[in-house]
Design a protein that fits this description.
Number of helices: 6
Structural class: mainly alpha
CATH architecture of one domain: Orthogonal Bundle
Strand content: under 5%
Helix content: 55-70%
CATH class of one domain: Mainly Alpha
Mean pLDDT: 79
Low-confidence stretches: none
């Protein structure tokens, strides 16, 4: 038991050291030459050009966009994550540079409006289908061929009253 416990403790210590060392290595700056264009463009496509309206940074050929892509490359080389880089650009230039609106404040409307519109559209479409079915059912109902006006249906109270009158007539005729 002692040897197994010691071996288990050694393995756990080795794993903990490996996790610690790998996180330290991840924080080390990388040379700019190791940062690929794909890594830069993965972030750049989520940021809009500051000069051209509505064009993602990864496809815009303006000098401002070239500078921004160089800044993204530099920040990646410094070990920053995509979220940190996006936060940097949003803090510096405002929410308008983000291709994906942040989920806060009135921007929630952008995220919730499609679901709301689909739900309202479903209700309207359901009512439309129900009306069509009701019209088809009314059209396929048998129509009376006589030209007489339909008499209103008698209610249960009228029938009971009618039966009482018939019984009184029968009793009088006896």
């Amino acid at each position: 038991m002692n040897k197994k416990s010691g071996l288990l403790a050694f393995i756990l210590a080795l794993l903990a050291t490996a996790v610690f060392v790998s996180s330290v290595w991840a924080q080390q700056p990388r040379p700019l030459s190791e940062i690929s264009d794909d890594e830069v463009n993965a972030i750049a496509r989520k940021i809009y050009c500051p000069v051209c309206e509505g064009i993602p940074l990864d496809t815009c050929p303006t000098l401002a966009c070239i500078d921004w892509r160089a800044e993204i490359r530099l920040q990646l080389a410094q070990g920053r994550t995509e979220a940190e880089i996006m936060d940097h650009f949003i803090r510096q230039y405002g929410d308008g540079v983000s291709a994906v609106p942040p989920r806060r404040g009135l921007n929630w409307l952008v995220w919730l409006a499609p679901f709301f519109l689909v739900a309202v559209g479903g209700v309207v479409f359901g009512n439309y289908l129900r009306n069509i079915r009701q019209q088809q059912a009314a059209a396929s109902a048998p129509k009376s061929t006589s030209k007489k006006k339909r008499q209103p249906k008698e209610t249960a109270v009228d029938i009971d009253d009618y039966i009482q009158r018939i019984e009184q007539e029968v009793d009088r005729n006896k």
